[in-house]
Amino acid sequence: MMRWLLWTVAAFGLLVVVVLVVGWSLPVAHRASRTRTFVDAAPDHVFAVITDFSRYSEWREGVTRVEVEGPGGVGQTVREYGANGEIPFVVEIFDPPARMVTRIASNELPFGGTWTYELRSDEAGSTELTITEDGEVYNALFRFMSRFVFGHHATIDRYFEDLEKQLVGR
User: Which domain range does residue 95 map to?
Assistant: First the structure.
């Protein structure tokens, strides 16, 4: 019995070491990008929804409350609260209804980076939205999890699903 326990502890320890070594070998920075078309949704409407930060907790899964500081546009600070704790970000570029860039405004988190939102209209009156995350993951364990468990696109995909529901009124 004791031998099995020792083997189990040794195997778990080896697994932790492998995960950390792989995590340390991954680059801190990554880029993830996705594009989705929202049918019958004009860019100005989509832009209005994604920049109405005070209403995020009404339609974004995992966001329980939001605090908005300052006037809209460049320099506006937004604090999202939810499963990941408090995440403050600042609006760096605000070009309605075509482009917005937000940056995580904290050095205390195990991650950081920007989200770039680019909107284009098509002939049918729909909007093509591209979100590009230029992210950084500072902790080796989180880097491993972000790359191999959750995937770098997971947050963007969740955002698109929530936005789709909000735009069609479901």
Answer: 2-168
